[in-house]
Specification:
Length: 450
């Protein structure tokens, strides 16, 4: 039996159109935009309401300290990079980190990609000027092209459809890889053994050997369940481009309630979380679990106001606060925020984004981050929550499965010279495969020290 939506629910989904929406492109062709939106509205959902509900329950568990979220992937996905190899490497990286964290934290790890929809980017300026020529800023592959030409930089609604189809094929591969035996625990652990066998990473051998023993113990006990052969893997992206999110919203026939079926989990960035803005209004009306990014200047009252708008009834797992304070500020700024929110009583899942508060520019001009700062922010996140008796619920990481050189440091000591070797990102610098695994092992070391 299917439940019809309340007419007010449908109307409400369009209320954002009357509000100010930050960070939206100026589409030159309004007619084509309308046609594309109509087309998107007829296409099948990319994810299902029941999956979003299952994720909400898992995030609620993470908020209580009974699970841990690992959310990782590109700063900005690129259509041309949605290849089987790149996607596979990214999934492998997240899974390898997940095995280490599952063991180290003795908790189920919720695996989530910044994948299959992470195509739209907020920018600090609408335009970019080079040698006296001014063009629209690059807002991600879903809006315009990266090359500094009028043809590329003009926002093109056709790209919304390309984003949908590229997300669909990415998700198809994710679903195949995570259920078809590729993601089996033994196999992922073998990849980790390959990593720690490299003398450069011998520091992590001991933890890998412990995991090995634990797995052999399980095998000796006859543990051979299906659960070890597959994983649930969720798709997430920043809910930025409302001309994409709105048409992909569907009414769940079980409940008559709307879900944004472009991804399981959507987060709202610092630049679009104005309380009376279009984004908060729109996302307040869909049932998906949501994240909001909070930077170092966020006040406790702002956090409470966001809870009033996005999770007034305090439904567990509905709202995740993703803090991005910077290594230098987290120990100073996070405590007051967590105390204020905790006193309110409505549950929040706290997640650490140790990437976006730690950007620097190398002397050679690259936008980069220091691996040591990333680790230090994670350490600060655990310290603050431990001191307050609250729960560190997960990590939000920008990473790629490939061997890029975008973040300084790590055992391979990428230095300022080294950045130029393989710097590929169009937006923010990502941890490479090895740095990502090191992060996971170092988090286990941090958890042991506490
Ligand atoms: N299904 C379990 C889980 O997701 C165990 C598991 C199978 C696993 N393959 C994995 C855990 C790969 C981490 C990584 O936790
Ligand atoms: Mn980024």
């Amino acid at each position: 039996m299917s439940v019809e939506p309340d007419p007010g629910v449908l109307e409400g989904l369009d209320a954002w159109e009357g509000l100010s929406a930050e960070q939206q492109p100026s589409w030159p062709d309004a007619t084509r935009l309308r046609q594309v939106r109509e087309k998107l509205a007829t296409l099948p959902p990319l994810v299902f309401a029941g999956e979003a509900d299952a994720l909400r329950a898992k995030l609620a568990a993470a908020g209580r300290g009974e699970a841990f979220l690992l959310q990782g992937g590109d700063c900005a996905e690129i259509f041309a990079e949605a290849t089987a190899d790149r996607i596979r490497h990214k999934i492998m990286t997240v899974l390898q980190m997940a095995v280490v964290l599952t063991y180290g934290a003795s908790l189920p790890v919720i695996k989530m990609g910044r994948m299959a929809g992470q195509y739209a980017k907020p920018r600090s300026a609408d335009t970019e000027t080079r040698d006296g020529v001014t063009l629209p800023a690059f807002r991600g592959d879903i809006v315009n092209g990266y090359a500094f030409t009028p043809a590329d930089r003009t926002p093109d609604p056709e790209r919304l459809l390309e984003a949908y189809h590229t997300s669909a094929s990415t998700l198809n591969l994710i679903r195949a890889f995570t259920t078809g035996g590729f993601a089996s625990l033994l196999r992922v652990h073998e990849w980790n053994r390959g990593f720690t066998a490299n003398p450069a990473y011998s520091r992590y051998e001991e933890i890998a050997a412990e995991i090995d023993r634990a797995i052999r113990f399980m095998a000796a006990c006859g543990a051979d369940f299906d659960a070890l052969r597959a994983v649930d893997f969720y798709a997430s992206h920043e809910g930025l481009l409302l001309d994409y999110e709105r048409p992909l919203t569907r009414i769940d026939s079980r409940t008559g309630l709307p879900y944004d079926c472009s991804g399981h989990f959507l987060w709202i960035g610092e630049r679009t979380r104005k309380l009376d803005g279009a984004h908060i209004d729109y996302f307040s009306r869909v049932q998906n679990p949501l994240g909001v990014k909070l930077g170092p200047t966020t006040t406790g009252d702002e956090a409470l106001a966001l809870m009033d708008r996005l999770n007034p009834n305090g439904e567990p797992g509905r709202l995740t606060f993703i803090t991005r304070m910077g290594a230098g500020l987290i120990r100073d700024r996070l405590p007051a925020l967590v105390e204020k929110v905790t006193a309110d009583g409505r549950p929040i899942t706290w997640v650490c984004d140790p990437m976006h508060g730690n950007g620097i520019v190398s002397s050679s001009g690259y936008k980069t981050r220091r691996f040591a700062d990333v680790i230090d922010e994670v350490a600060g996140f655990f310290e603050v929550h431990r001191a307050l008796g609250t729960v560190p619920g997960g990590l939000h990481i920008e990473l790629t499965g490939d061997d890029v050189t975008e973040v300084l440091g790590g055992t391979e000591e990428i230095d300022e010279e080294g950045l130029s070797r393989r710097y590929e990102t169009r937006v923010d610098p990502r941890l490479n495969h090895q740095q990502s695994l090191e992060l996971a092992f170092q988090v286990v070391e941090l958890l042991r020290r506490s």
